[in-house]
Design goal:
Blueprint lengths: L6 E3 L4 E6 L3 H12 L4 E4 L16 E3 L15 H12 L5 H11 L2 H7 L4 E2 L12 E4 L2 H16 L2 E3 L3 E8 L2 E9 L2 E12 L8 H8 L7 E2 L8 H8 L4 E2 L5 E7 L20 E3 L14 H4 L3 H6 L6 E6 L14 E3 L2 H7 L4 H14 E2 L12 E2 L18 E13 L2 E2 L6 E3 L5 E7 L17 H22 L1
Parallel strand pairs: 1-10, 2-3, 2-10, 3-7, 10-22, 11-19
Antiparallel strand pairs: 4-6, 5-6, 8-9, 9-10, 12-20, 13-19, 14-15, 15-19, 16-19, 17-18, 21-22
């Protein structure tokens, strides 16, 4: 395998080569095939583990004008834009973001036409029944539907086909080399769609940006997203976008596996209690905003705490208000006993809870809206959903930063074409999904936006690649 002679040539040349196997890749492949192109999908994972992080998703956020059978009300383009600006603190490409939001309005019908089915939001799912559409059967069922449609349309799929080299001359793609069990193979194409995810499972690459604290991070998604294709593209003078330390990072159960724990390790109970660090001290407002718009800040917050660990403390009143995690909460008869189970200072935690309780101004508690239950004269405050933690038994979850995907990626234009460092778009290279999410997400996150980015830009990239191949 040391020379060019060791690389077999694939017998077919394709119009469109899609690198990746998740939602963005499949939307691109289907769109390109429906536009008449010959398409191959190169998936590094095995068939069982295909789909990258899409396997762990359950919904997508799309603008829509009215309630439907599975959505409880309208969600306008302007409201979507306002939500995006708020969670990113304005760090987004407005032209691309507004285009994505506009295009998202017909994505639900298009996705449905590809065989994906939806269901109403379940109770406890982040109050998303109006804004987000939930996949019937979750992300894996969605993937199965997209793969079935792609295969019926004649899209070729290679599994366990890791791309190890890209033949790029200037701004033009010519071929991809994949590593398979039987050896290396070169696959030629008239256009490339890169939809191969971020680099969140590459711990050494995370350490480059975050420092040694990144070794304490857990990876919610696939272990296959190591950023190798991104590195190849940036090394070929494709322009970059985003900050290597910005990512979709949530607080997940500290007992979760290092990789692939998925959505069931996420904890949605922060707003119903308090969060303390190893010193048994609170460090942020747990009730700042409704959970779908703020849950993704907690991974970064925990990352800044000692040993990158924190503890969510709540009582019996709140025990049934959220979706349970994979692991049961730790239970105790008193706050002091609860502290001891986590090797926290019992006196300090008891004092922290007492100070919080004394500051609570209880109003009309409503877990679904910005209620008037808040603290007074407490730093940091809890601005909504503040209730005294005074009803045993008492519970706690240990949490660590759970990285879903990273935002450093390739810069694209409104046609999903990669932009070159020298200026202007690449001749025949497109990108979709996490590998270009930093164009829309400079920071922050709101539930379901990752799937929106993948679906919208995937379809645009697939259509554009097919158009180029036909010229």
């Amino acid at each position: 395998m040391n020379g060019q002679s060791d690389i077999a040539e694939h017998p077919a040349a394709y119009d469109v080569v899609v690198v990746g196997g998740g939602n963005a890749a499949l939307c691109a492949a289907i769109a390109a095939r429906r536009a008449g192109a010959s398409v191959i999908v190169l998936e590094a994972a095995s068939k069982f583990y295909r789909g990258g992080n899409t396997r762990h998703t359950r919904n997508m956020r799309c603008a829509h004008d009215a309630a439907t059978a599975t959505l409880s009300g309208p969600y306008s383009e302007d409201e979507f834009w306002d939500d995006l600006v708020r969670v990113t603190d304005g760090q987004t490409n407005e032209q691309l973001a507004r285009m994505m939001i506009r295009e998202s309005k017909d994505m639900l019908d298009w996705i449905f036409d590809q065989g994906v089915r939806f269901q109403p939001s379940l109770g406890g799912t982040l109050s998303l029944g109006r804004t987000n559409s939930f996949f019937l059967g979750g992300g894996r069922a969605m993937l199965n539907a997209l793969y079935l449609t792609a295969e019926r349309l004649g899209v070729d799929v290679l599994y366990e086909a890791e791309v190890v080299a890209l033949d790029i001359d200037g701004d033009r793609f010519h071929a991809a080399t994949v590593q398979r069990k039987e050896g290396r193979m070169r696959i030629r194409g008239k256009a490339l769609v890169a939809a191969s995810g971020g680099f969140e499972s590459n711990i050494e690459k995370l350490v480059e940006g975050w420092g040694e604290i990144a070794r304490n991070f857990l990876i919610r998604g696939t272990p296959n997203n190591r950023g190798t294709v991104l590195d190849m593209l940036l090394g070929a003078d494709v322009d970059s976008v985003g900050d290597p330390t910005q990512c979709h990072a949530v607080a997940i159960d500290a007992r979760a596996p290092k990789y692939d724990g998925g959505i069931i390790t996420r904890l949605d109970c922060v707003v119903f209690g308090i969060v303390v660090n190893r010193n048994a001290e609170r460090f942020y407002d747990e009730g700042e905003d409704v959970w779908p718009k703020r849950y993704a800040i907690w991974g970064r917050l925990v990352a800044t705490q000692p040993d990158q660990i924190a503890y969510i403390i709540f009582d019996a009143k709140s025990a049934n208000l959220f979706m349970p995690s994979l692991y049961p909460a730790i239970e105790a008869a008193s706050i002091g006993e609860l502290a001891a189970k986590f090797d926290l200072d019992p006196e300090k935690l008891t004092e922290t809870v007492a100070q919080f309780n004394a500051a609570v101004h209880e109003g009309s508690f409503d877990p679904d809206t910005l209620d008037d239950c808040h603290t007074e004269n407490l730093t940091p405050p809890k601005t909504h959903w503040a209730r005294r933690i005074d009803t045993g038994p008492y519970y706690a979850y240990p949490v660590r930063p759970g990285i879903t995907f990273t935002y450093l990626g390739v810069r694209v234009d409104h046609e999903a074409r990669m932009m070159m460092k020298a200026g202007g778009p690449a001749a025949n290279m497109y990108a979709a999904g996490e590998i270009m999410a930093g164009n829309v997400l400079g920071r922050g996150y709101a539930a379901g936006i990752g799937m929106t980015i993948g679906s919208v830009f995937g379809r645009i990239a697939g259509r554009g690649a097919a158009r180029h191949a036909a010229q």
